[in-house]
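Human: If only I could read backbone structure tokens as easily as an amino acid sequence. Take your time, and here it is.
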Amino acid sequence: MKSIAFILTVCVGVLLGVNQTQAATTVSGNLLADTTWDTSGSPYTIAADLVLYPGYILTIEPGVEVLVDAGVDVDIRGQLLVNGTSTTPVTITGSVDPTTSWSATGGDGIRINSDQGGSLTASYMHISHMHTAIQVDCCYASDLNFTITDSTFSDNTVGIFGYDGPNTITVESTTFQNNTYAVKGVDINLVDASFDQNTYGLHYTSGVNVTCSEFTNNTAGVGSASNGSISSSSFTDNVTAFDEPWDSLSVSSNTITNNTTGFYLEDNIVVSDNNIYDNAAGNVVNGSSQNLTFESNWWNSTDASAIAATITDAYDEVGLGIVDIDPWLTGEVDTVADCAVVDETAPAEVILGLIQKNPWNKTITLNWMNPTDIDFDHIQIIRMDKDGTAVTLTETETSEQYIDSSIEYGMTYTYTLSTVDSSGNASVGVTTDAKRVKSPHVHHLRLQARGAAIVARWERLPLRLNPAVGYIVYYGTAADDLTSSIDVGNARMVTIPELVEGQWYYVAVTAYNGDGVEGPLSIIKSIQL
């Protein structure tokens, strides 16, 4: 046994040209260790057959370019991770003319050997000019993954071919363009896929399920396809939208319009709840003696003669079967309702602004900037005190300011502002620093009796922001009956004259600010003359 971890032919050279710092790497042979291809070695040219062995991972990093020479087979028996991004996709390019004939044994492509542990997870992968871009071999891969998202298959003889056994191949948000056969095989789920300018979108497939996808400008959107389902998808500007599918294929909630031919069938399939109209050479052409069922579809008309005029069957040609369209729907089918993207992303957070404490009004004012997310709806504000008591102040605020007038003097609060969108997604929230509002009541009131007068003294209110500009002295013969008052301005001492000797008097002081807002009473003090 060889002692090295893998057998791999590598030639590294310098590319002469505009970018003289990027290396080029030639690879082939057996990969017997975890391997990463990054941009420092890009482009990677696979010059001869390459095998990734079971138990090992080949990771292709964002921005890497891979070139596959003619006739080369890339055999994946381990785990292939293609980690492109929206701005730096992974590009894999072969040297095949997509018009060449296809066979299941040909090279020029990536073969996922699932029966030996092969799997593929790919995102933002652009793969082109292959004989069979991705081929999945059956069939013992119950615990393996095969997922392709946000990718593009173009100018291949076959985009995806294969059968993953007990698993289902999942392809999401992927474009197939200018391939001879975009997808062949069985047990494949395609969601939000785009098929454009292919000879066949689907052909020789079974158990393939397509939802929320578009078929445009293909020779045939769906060719020979059996079982499986096509739903919530659109077919426009194809030569034939459905060209001889068979054996219980289910076609529902689709829009099939503005093609040359909508359906050309020689076998019965399940077709219901579709919009089928304005296909130039006919909405349905029965090419056999078998009767076909097309009940419960919308034909852009409720007139039986008008609908029948768009269908070729026994009423038009001797020997053909009948196409049964009765009953038909009386209005357009909403074919995109099931394709609505579920929004699970919360809006961006607010940007906190100035937090203002106003002791005179006993308020804390929060200011912020709302996010610019188009689906932003409102702000939720939760106040927490130092004892851990949480109070939801508002769940509907849409402005960029909130005044909390329910605070208590001397209590410490924090506020958490969460953004909420129209789907109800809420952000984690932004929490303020702890805030406490001191009471603007006058401190250390002292009283002194002088015959029939009282001398009152107090300390200046220590407010730097929004300070006190004056004081009012209240007095009376009962604590709850301070009926007399003197506005002393900014003084901190006053003599209350002309009182009755021997009488008890009660005195308190308030401060007021420049807006004339008066604070709370000080502690009420008493004295006997």
Q: What stands out?
A: The longest strand covers residues 376-385.
